[in-house]
From TrEMBL:
Compartments (UniProt record): Golgi apparatus membrane
Catalytic activity: an N(4)-{beta-D-GlcNAc-(1->2)-alpha-D-Man-(1->3)-[alpha-D-Man-(1->6)]-beta-D-Man-(1->4)-beta-D-GlcNAc-(1->4)-beta-D-GlcNAc}-L-asparaginyl-[protein] + UDP-N-acetyl-alpha-D-glucosamine = N(4)-{beta-D-GlcNAc-(1->2)-alpha-D-Man-(1->3)-[beta-D-GlcNAc-(1->2)-alpha-D-Man-(1->6)]-beta-D-Man-(1->4)-beta-D-GlcNAc-(1->4)-beta-D-GlcNAc}-L-asparaginyl-[protein] + UDP + H(+)
Ligand binding (Mn(2+)): D285, H398
Pathway(s) it belongs to: Protein modification; protein glycosylation
Naturally occurring in which organism (per UniProt): Glossina fuscipes
Disulfide cysteine pairs (residue numbers): C220-C234, C307-C310, C358-C381, C363-C467, C402-C411
Superkingdom in the source lineage: Eukaryota
Protein name from the UniProt record: Alpha-1,6-mannosyl-glycoprotein 2-beta-N-acetylglucosaminyltransferase
EC number: 2.4.1.143
């Protein structure tokens, strides 16, 4: 259950984390059996050393991970904070003793006034980096939008994976930030393999620390009873969620940000005014395969003959990591389900326009998850429900699970990243990348997704209103 009792403070995430562990174990056991059977059938005899790879523990040392990354891309993985840059400069200069003594005073992160000024400037200028090198955006190019919070380490790996993707030079890569951080900006601005743009969610908790949408000191505490709240006259006393809890700013931000960025990209940016192609949604802790754009464009072209009613394409799957190479060219189609298809999906303006008309459903549904809200929109409002084409061998992976279930373990050990690298290496070696064609498989039977009441966390009228306000186009 995804009731509010088990909330975990997560930045830009979908919702599968909480269920993953059990699936994971079951999945591993199941896959082990499958793999055994496959080996018996000698399906893999066409390439060498395949079988031992899966049994080997992965080498997740930093060196090993680095060794899988071309050296020209190491710059994206090498942390260089402003602080350290300053320090090393000072140490090199040596003689600058006074500077060294005052070192701590030299770098000041910007204050909120300054951050607001910068955010306004970026959002106003709509600057596109590398446009001169890679040419203007074509109407049918893919736009990739990455929702970024604070997890720079994952973001580094995502960037490295993007850098290695086929045809990446044709995309516009938009980073949508809800946290202004100069190290993250430096990282994004060093990207040199495609056009890049940064947009900044302007209603963040960071820039509204003591007021809505951040935490207003006069907001009702989450667990206070409604009658007490009314006596206390706290701000939102009349609007607890459907489980009787009051708003928590950190949980509402992700949904607001998701909605803001979708509106911003489709309806407000100048550069997308005539864009009719796909917009692919990623998050900071995703990782892409080198053929993800190739597969995406192929799926898009094939909607005509494989699935006319499909209006959303999905490149990620949660549980299939380990049998990637048995499914290289297979796709399936089924109704879009938030918990299954919320990573690495893409749609075009036609789909967006229909979603946008349902803003009221999205913005007033009492669920703080953007993906469940989108599913609600699909089921309750859309004339043509969201119908997904899903590639069975995932091209988008989720590497950010560390933060949730493995708190105790050493997350810097990069276990998931090295696993993904390994899966991709096997796929590459066995010729499973860049399939020549796609085939439709019969979708596995899915349980009828009973529409449940929302997960709560979205009862506050101010949230509904802010969300609706973002829907007004201002191009
Ligand atoms: C992991 O890889 C690194 C670098 O390639 C190597 O030095 C190290 O010995 C390896 N560790 C294990 C346990 O294989
Ligand atoms: C920079 O480094 C100093 C000393 O290590 C530390 O006290 C300070 O908080 C750091 N500042 C930032 C903005 O990271
Ligand atoms: C240290 O020296 C380098 C080059 O010699 C110079 O660019 C830099 O500004 C100096 N840094 C400081 C803090 O003096
Ligand atoms: C914030 O920073 C700006 C520029 O760095 C400075 O002019 C301003 O006084 C600062 N404001 C506060 C409240 O510290
Ligand atoms: C994009 O579409 C617009 C409107 O249809 C058209 O005017 C423009 O020339 C197109 N741009 C490109 C690069 O195809
Ligand atoms: C969006 O994709 C659908 C097929 O999935 C297509 O019918 C429609 O024309 C596309 N819209 C635009 C604006 O290209
Ligand atoms: C929404 O927009 C209206 C009109 O511009 C404004 O009065 C109101 O304060 C906004 N609400 C929120 C929550 O931002």
């Amino acid at each position: 259950m995804r009731g509010r009792r088990i909330l975990i403070p997560l930045p830009n995430t979908g919702s599968m984390y909480r269920k993953r562990n059990t699936y994971y174990m079951r999945g591993i056991i199941f896959m082990a059996i499958l793999i055994f059977l496959f080996l018996k059938l000698q399906i893999f005899t066409f390439y060498d050393n395949h079988d031992s790879v899966l049994m080997e523990p992965t080498n997740d040392s930093v060196d090993a991970i680095m060794s899988m990354v071309p050296s020209v891309l190491h710059k994206f993985l090498t942390p260089k904070t402003r602080n350290q840059t300053l320090l090393s400069n000072l140490l090199h200069n040596g003689s600058n003793l006074i500077g060294a003594l005052n070192f701590v005073d030299l770098y000041h992160p910007p204050n909120i006034t300054e951050i607001n000024r910068q955010i306004a400037k970026y959002n106003d200028m709509q600057l596109v980096l590398n446009e001169y090198t890679f040419g203007p955006l074509q109407n049918d190019s893919v736009i990739i939008v990455v929702q970024v919070h604070t997890r720079i380490t994952y973001l580094r790996h995502l960037i490295v994976s993007l850098a290695q993707a086929h045809d990446i030079s044709r995309v516009l890569l938009i980073f949508s930030h809800d946290y202004y951080d100069e190290d993250i900006n430096d990282l994004v601005q060093t990207i040199d393999f495609c056009k890049v743009m940064q947009i900044f969610y302007p209603y963040s908790i960071q820039t509204h620390p003591n007021e809505f949408p951040g935490i207003d000191p006069n907001d009702c505490p989450r667990d206070i009873k409604k009658d007490h709240a009314i006596i206390r006259k706290c701000n939102n006393a009349l609007y607890p969620d459907l489980y009787g809890h009051y708003r928590e700013a950190k949980f509402t931000q992700t949904k607001h940000h998701w909605w803001w960025k979708a509106n911003r990209v489709f309806d407000q940016l100048e550069i997308t005014r005539y864009h009719t192609g796909l917009v692919l949604f990623l998050e900071e802790d995703h990782y892409v395969a080198e053929d993800f754009l190739y597969v995406l464009e192929m799926m898009y072209k094939r909607t005509i003959d494989l699935c006319l009613q499909c209006n959303i394409l999905s490149l990620g799957t949660y549980l299939k990591t380990f049998n990637y190479y048995t499914y290289n060219s297979k796709v399936e189609v089924m109704p879009w389900i938030s918990s299954k298809h919320n990573m690495g999906f893409a749609f075009n303006r036609t789909t967006w326009n229909s979603i946008r008309k349902c803003a009221k459903h999205f913005c007033s549904y009492d669920d703080y998850n953007w993906d469940w809200s989108l599913q609600h929109v699909s089921q309750q409002c859309l004339r043509r429900k969201l119908h997904a084409m899903i590639v069975k061998g995932p091209r988008v992976f989720h590497i950010g699970e560390c933060g949730v279930h493995h708190k105790k373990k050493n997350c810097e050990s990069n276990q998931v990243i090295s696993k993904v690298q390994q899966v991709l290496r096997i796929a590459r070696k066995s010729g499973q990348m860049f399939p020549r064609t796609l085939t439709l498989t019969v979708a596995s039977l899915i349980k009828k997704t009973k529409l449940r009441k929302g997960n709560g966390g979205w009862g506050d009228k101010r949230d509904h209103e802010l969300c609706m306000n973002m829907t007004l186009p201002v191009r």
